[in-house]
Specification:
SH3 type barrels, OB fold (Dihydrolipoamide Acetyltransferase, E2P), single chain, six-stranded antiparallel beta sheet, 3 domains
Length: 187
């Protein structure tokens, strides 16, 4: 058992009979009345995010989870397959459990969160940034804009990312997997 003082982003807990993780939280101490914690909770089974308010000091039931490194192998009609690099164990995960499946490359290392009690995978998290090569984009012209103009670019995984006009096909870029946006060119 834990209390609201133990809240942190990513904490997994049992709430209303389901397993949730804290996406964000905020402690609030109003001038009048008791303190409370405003949270956004993500259901690990459905992926739905709900807002909830907890009274300060209320006890919560924390779920035991383990984060393990796995390497992406391949995708088939059963789902995405990942391999544990130490035990060579193969784990199959549905696309809905992966935070940004469009940026997965074969051989990429990801972190899979398991329920420690039942040994079932809960979510699959890509690193915050991935480096990808642009396979196709329209050529950009220098000096024809006065503002931050963007164009569509297709990366090696098949995903489309908005990039600045100066980025060309064949270049490597860094993409933020949380938002799907262009971050920078890789030298």
């Amino acid at each position: 058992m834990a209390t609201t003082a133990d809240f942190r982003n990513g904490l997994c807990m049992y709430f209303n009979g389901d397993l949730y993780t804290i996406v964000e939280f905020q402690h609030v101490k109003p001038g009048k009345g008791p303190a409370f914690v405003r949270t956004k909770l993500k259901n690990l089974k459905t992926g739905r995010v709900i807002p909830n308010t907890f009274t300060a000091g209320v006890k919560i039931d924390v779920a035991r989870v383990e984060r393990r490194q796995y390497q992406y192998s391949y995708k088939d009609d059963l789902g995405y397959h990942f391999m544990n690099q130490e035990t060579w164990e193969d784990v199959q995960i549905a696309e809905a459990m992966i935070n940004s499946p469009q940026f997965l490359l074969e051989g990429q290392v990801v972190e899979i969160v398991f329920d420690a009690d039942t040994e079932t995978p809960l979510t699959c998290e890509l690193p915050p940034f991935v480096e990808l090569t642009i396979t196709y984009t329209e050529p950009g012209e220098k000096g024809n804009t006065a503002t931050n103009a963007m164009k569509d670019a297709t990366v090696e995984t098949g995903a489309t990312v908005r990039v600045p006009l100066f980025v060309n096909a064949g270049e490597r870029i860094k993409v933020d997997t949380r938002t799907g946006e262009y971050s920078e060119r890789v030298k």
